[in-house]
Amino acid sequence: MEENNENKYLFQVNLKGMIELLSEHIYSAPNVFVRELLQNGIDANTARKSIEENHKGIINVYLNKVDDTPQLIFEDNGIGLTEEEVHQFLSVIGQSSKRGDFNEKDFIGKFGIGMLSCLVVSHEIVVETRSLLKDKSVCWRGKADGTYTVEAIDNIEKAGTRVILSPKKEWLPLFEKEELKKNILQFGNALPITINFITDEGTEVLVDKDPVWLNKDSSKEDLLEYGRKTFNINFLDAFYLHSDKGQIDGVAYIMPYKVQFSGSKQHKIYLKRMYLCEQANNLLPEWTSFVKCIINTNDLRPTASRESLMDDDVMKEAKKELSNCFKDYLKVLMLNDVKKLSEIISIHHIFIKALAVEDRELLKMFIDYIPFETNKGHMTFLSIKTYNDIVYYTPSLDDFRQIRRIAGSQGKTVINAAYSFEVDLIQKIKISFPDIRLEKITPQDILDTLSDVVISDDERYQQFEKRANDLLKNQYCKAQLKQFDPIDTPAIYVANDEAMSNKNIQNLSNSGNPFAATLHNFIKKEDNMPTLCFNKDNEIVQNLIAIEDETLFNSVVHIMYVQALMLGGYPVNKKEMTVFNDALYQLLIMGMSNFIGKFDL
Ligand SMILES: Nc1ncnc2c1ncn2[C@@H]1O[C@H](COP(=O)(O)OP(=O)(O)OP(=O)(O)O)[C@@H](O)[C@H]1O
């Protein structure tokens, strides 16, 4: 079928809109023009090297003053552009000479939009260029209104390109010497090229050799010194990272202090040795947060904003290889420097635990050194298993708080396994070390081990339980008389998850919540309430049993109730706080009434 060209039109691009899109949505900061210009200089040299293998690339950055305003020139001795190429690549947005080229993968750029970032900060872009392949030079001028001019010039003697920018007034600070230097170094410090910075004060060589972190012969001291200068942290140790997948090389630095498991991770990620971003979320596993990394990838793909890496299959493979570098480092440390390993484990045990869940070999090697929080303080697994035939654990911090005191008095060692991966770790330990008995324990289990008091034997005990129950039911709590150690603990509050949730629902429905009736249906077993266990052998409890005075009895029970809540680490709600304060007030009045008038005698 013949094509009908009559009603066929070309899309028009609104350049002003494109620049706004770039500056406000695609690139996060206006200083990225420095990155884009350095990148074009590097790519032009890469292209030239495919023709002249031994060519030595240079980028000169000139900061001049013209009529009292700064003029910035990025000059490279790369392949340059012919007049046709200027029309084809510089003047068409989205057109790039780097796509489809036989050495496409060696270039950093590919989208054909980077140059536009200069129009965010400069009125126009002037490109003076001479191609290695032609003896003619041209000057291209592009403006934000979408117009450009091209003219022949004769002031360029050798192949290469000069990009000249004149800053917009609002972006003048970016063209100040120190700011510019900082940005060139931020993006370009690892580039495999010489970068000279030339101002009226002279020439400063900013970059001219490989960074220490990419040099496999660097000493540990050099690596640590580099890390200290880059992150302002005195790291504990450093080790190399490498992955064939993604062609990744770099260094991981171990933090000298504890870090949050879910804290923000700031690394330095380079793509083809150009600084890219701080985050490497999908490249490094979650448990690597105890290090800061400086890494370069030659083969992972950037997003169009060039501010993060694409999460693709290569990245998944690279992640595995990098994980192995961490594991290998720790295994070697186990053989060569146990002292350092113990130091790392004692500071970063959370991460080492998460890692050990993934790796059975590491689990077996490290488990003895890993500390756990127990009811007897922090203990390594070695001492836990040495002194206990059965080790208990609780997967909930609330349960642990409740259980820890009473379990200790029963000679039990309980591990607080509140992080989800700690429970996983315990399951893995069970599989890898079937001889070690690890058992889950709940507050209910502890409650079941407290000895019952046969209240029917003594009317006073029956009376006591009834009085305490009548009083505490207003707090959604049962009272029971038990016998347990330690004897100096008058009462403990025991509640499993269901009992706690019943209590919360009860509280909500009592506080005038409009869904009260509906909420009430959520209370499953009516009788599953928290329990306040009074210790029959405790001295205060024995006195309490004998108290007849209603006000005094109620006050003491309320105070013991709130104290037990606090001891177990439970929240104390407004109603509970009120009964506690009232009880204290009553006791004060009663206490003082014994003395009133005595001084007058
Ligand atoms: N210094 C230079 N030397 C030679 N050619 C250049 C130079 N700067 C730009 N070019 C040409 O202009 C084209 C467009 O450059 P631009 O920076 O907009 O995009 P890119 O580098 O191709 O891709 P990206 O948007 O990913 O950076 C390049 O593909 C290249 O052909």
How far apart the termini lie comes to 124 Å
Shape estimate: elongated
Fraction in helix: 25-40%
Give a short account of the largest sheet: 8 strands, mixed
CATH architecture of the largest domain: 2-Layer Sandwich
Query: Uncertain regions: pLDDT < 50 for 5+ in a row?
Result: none
Q: Quaternary state, please?
A: single chain
Protein name: Molecular chaperone HtpG
GO molecular function: ATP binding; ATP hydrolysis activity; ATP-dependent protein folding chaperone; unfolded protein binding
Family: Belongs to the heat shock protein 90 family.
Keywords: ATP-binding, Chaperone, Nucleotide-binding
Describe this structure as you would to a colleague:
By secondary structure, this protein is of the alpha+beta class. It folds into 4 domains: 15-207, Histidine kinase-like ATPase, C-terminal domain (Heat Shock Protein 90); 212-336, Ribosomal Protein S5, domain 2, CATH 3.30.230; 363-442, 3-Layer(aba) Sandwich (Rossmann fold), CATH 3.40.50; 450-495 and 530-598, Up-down Bundle (Four Helix Bundle (Hemerythrin (Met), subunit A)). 39% of the residues lie in helices and 21% in strands. It has 19 helices and 22 strands. An 8-stranded mixed β-sheet has the order 5-4-3-6-2-1-7-8. Helix 8 (338-358) crosses helix 12. The radius of gyration is 36 Å and the shape is elongated. The mean pLDDT is 88. Bound molecules: adenosine-5'-triphosphate (ATP).
